[in-house]
Amino acid sequence: MISSISLKQTTGSLAVVILLLIAFIGGCDTKSAVETAAGSPDSIAEVSHRAVVFKELVASNREDDNSITDLSFIDTNGDTVALKSFEGKQNVLLVFTRGFSGMLCPFCTTQTSRLIANYDEFKKRNTEVLLVYPGSTDQLPEFQQASRESTDLDAFPFPVLLDEDLAAVKKLGIAAHLAFPSTFLIDRMGNVRLSYVGSSPSDRPSIKALLEQIDAIPPN
């Protein structure tokens, strides 16, 4: 059980991350944004959202067994969200951002904005999007310093979750400075259909690629 102090710190840090994300994605051209090649230079400070192109063709680049569904995260209310709670109900698109280390990664914010813009397409396919932000409660002062005021948390149609102290990141072996950008597609029976770990900040599946992966799931 999370103590009240720890819970306050955890939800506070996650809320600030959401504030930052909304502030950054607010000006993105989400649906019509032109997607740089995934192998483009990763000079974070110089990246334009509209210049970002993610991979159109993807396949699993590692193997993960169904134990991935044992993972759980913390939502903005401080409640635990377990992947197993979706079994028998919905597919899950589990998206790990790189985390926060003093600035937000423009590839993360671009990816987030496109997931938001196309969320209805995922809903049509009975797929819930879970956006995971790896972070440590020790980063709370840095989060607060970088946060912006006035935003609308309802801008996110899907859950934004905190991987507190990178517990899931470490278990999955995707730790980098914080985390490699990673995407996992789990069908409603708990089977892993896609495991994709990016080799660089820009190496991520496009929306088109993700929808194609979902469409390829055999009917249960």
TrEMBL record:
What EC number(s) has UniProt assigned to this enzyme? Answer: 1.11.1.24
Enzyme class, spelled out: oxidoreductase
- Record's catalysed reaction(s): a hydroperoxide + [thioredoxin]-dithiol = an alcohol + [thioredoxin]-disulfide + H2O
* Pfam families hit by this protein: AhpC-TSA
Q: Which SUPFAM superfamilies match?
A: Thioredoxin-like (SSF52833)
Which UniProt keywords are given for this protein, alphabetically ordered? Answer: Antioxidant, Disulfide bond, Oxidoreductase, Peroxidase, Redox-active center
Lineage: superkingdom: Bacteria
Q: Which GO terms fall under biological process for this protein? A: cell redox homeostasis; cellular response to oxidative stress
Q: Name one GO cellular component term.
A: cytoplasm
Classification via Gene3D superfamilies: Glutaredoxin (3.40.30.10)
Domain Thioredoxin span(s) in chain numbering: 62-219
Q: Which InterPro entries match?
A: AhpC/TSA, Peroxiredoxin_BCP/PrxQ, Thioredoxin-like_sf, Thioredoxin_domain
Give the molecular function GO annotations. thioredoxin peroxidase activity
Function per UniProt? Thiol-specific peroxidase that catalyzes the reduction of hydrogen peroxide and organic hydroperoxides to water and alcohols, respectively. Plays a role in cell protection against oxidative stress by detoxifying peroxides and as sensor of hydrogen peroxide-mediated signaling events.
Q: Which family does it belong to?
A: Belongs to the peroxiredoxin family. BCP/PrxQ subfamily.
Which protein is depicted? thioredoxin-dependent peroxiredoxin
